[in-house]
Design brief:
- It contains 13 helices and 14 strands.
- With 372 residues, it is an alpha/beta fold.
- It folds into two domains: 5-177 and 352-369, 3-Layer(aba) Sandwich (Rossmann fold), CATH 3.40.50.2000; 199-340, Glycogen Phosphorylase B (Rossmann fold, 3-Layer(aba) Sandwich).
- It has an eight-stranded mixed sheet with strand order 3-4-2-1-5-6-7-8, with helices on both faces.
Length: 372
């Protein structure tokens, strides 16, 4: 029997950094290593990346996307790759850009079965975030043709099934995985910050909706009660200049480091988390946040913004939650309380990336075996 040929279509992929990029890399490389003929189709706004590349055992193909300076990602070359590759299954990852409808329409016209993972997510522009419901409504005719709709969090199934008027049986829950290695002993101190004082981490791509600015706003109030505290903003992205200006304006720049850990260096992330006393995630919206799962797997206390996937963790007793619009004083009080009196550790039953990849491979096989 010939190997299953799967095309995963994602708006962005490595070397760009983000939750969807990380998810696709983790599962696609594992599925390819299991013997599946796996290709990732993504976009290139810069025109400077290879059109055909490799990421371990899988092939990466890139098509040009426009406009260069925006994230709409209109990529007309997507359709030809989807329709002309002889794929057994097409997996569309993330619905937020023009890439998803182009891929779904091409697969539908070519009578190739396709599945869609939503990756709910947020956006730094409030209007774009509020428009998500309209986007899903506009995509409903294409989503209704999908062989299966994949959710990474429980609330997506309830919300989207009701909103799209589709049976719950069309959805399948396959959460993100966690696979941090054991932290090495004697991990080096973070650059520029002294060792020994409480270290707070705010982790995620540097976008406004990720809420790093809320942690920064609370930090002077934290320092008033814990003068030795330090803040590590772990990420990279377009919001970095604003965060650096905010730290300077608040007079805390000497106690703050903004630095990303390379996405592929899980050992470095494990070592950094091992030295962190508290992780704070105050995003507007997260579906099934990988950063939170990794913090929990490393045994780190967690303060989160209530609602979406972060709220689900708090409801399970795994994190302390505050309102997303909490004042800096309220956020600081929650941070200080968790530093001094963390929630009791709970037994964790977190899926691994191996689990996630195995579930997806089972889904691809089942979908490919159905009559077209």
């Amino acid at each position: 029997m010939s190997a299953l040929r799967v095309l995963t279509v994602t708006p962005r992929y490595l070397p760009e950094i983000g939750g969807v990029e990380r998810h696709v890399h983790e599962v696609a490389t594992r599925i390819a290593a299991a013997g599946c003929e796996m290709t990732v189709l993504t976009t290139d706004r810069s025109g400077g990346l290879p059109a055909v590349d490799a990421d371990g055992p899988l092939t990466v193909r890139r098509v040009r996307a426009h406009p260069r300076g925006r994230d709409w990602l209109y990529a007309p070359g997507v359709g030809a790759v989807v329709a002309g590759g002889g794929w057994d299954v097409v997996h569309v990852q993330s619905y937020h850009t023009f890439v998803a409808p182009l891929a779904m329409r091409a697969a539908s016209r070519a009578r190739i079965p396709f599945v869609v993972t939503f990756h709910g997510g947020g956006h730094s522009q409030a209007l774009r975030h509020r428009a998500r419901r309209l986007q899903r409504a506009a995509l409903r005719p294409l989503l209704a043709r999908a062989a299966r709709l994949v959710a990474v969090a429980e609330f997506e199934i309830e919300e989207y099934a009701r909103e799209l008027r589709l049976p719950r049986e069309r959805f399948v829950l396959i959460p993100n995985g966690v696979d941090l290695p054991a932290a090495a002993n004697g991990a080096a101190a973070l650059d520029g910050l002294p060792d020994g004082d409480p270290l707070i981490a705010s982790i995620g791509r540097l976008e406004e909706y990720k809420g790093h600015q809320r942690v920064l706003a609370a930090f002077p109030h934290v320092l008033a009660a814990a003068p030795g505290a330090r803040l590590w903003i772990a990420g990279s992205g377009p919001y970095e200049p604003q965060l650096r200006r905010q730290a300077s304006r608040l007079g805390v720049a000497d106690r703050v480091e903004i630095r990303a850990v390379p996405a592929a260096d899980r050992g470095a992330m494990a070592a950094a988390l091992a030295r962190t006393d508290l992780v704070v995630l105050l995003s507007d919206f997260e579906t099934h946040p990988i950063a939170a799962l990794e913090a929990l797997s490393a045994g780190r206390p967690l303060v989160v913004a209530d609602g979406s996937g972060l709220g689900e963790l708090a409801a399970r007793g795994l994190a302390r939650a505050i309102p997303v619009d909490a004042t800096p004083q309220v956020a600081a009080a929650a941070i200080l309380r968790e530093l001094r009196d963390p929630l009791p550790a709970r037994a964790l039953d977190l899926p691994t990336w191996d689990d996630c990849a195995a579930r997806l491979l089972e889904l691809y096989t089942a979908v490919a075996e159905r009559p077209r």
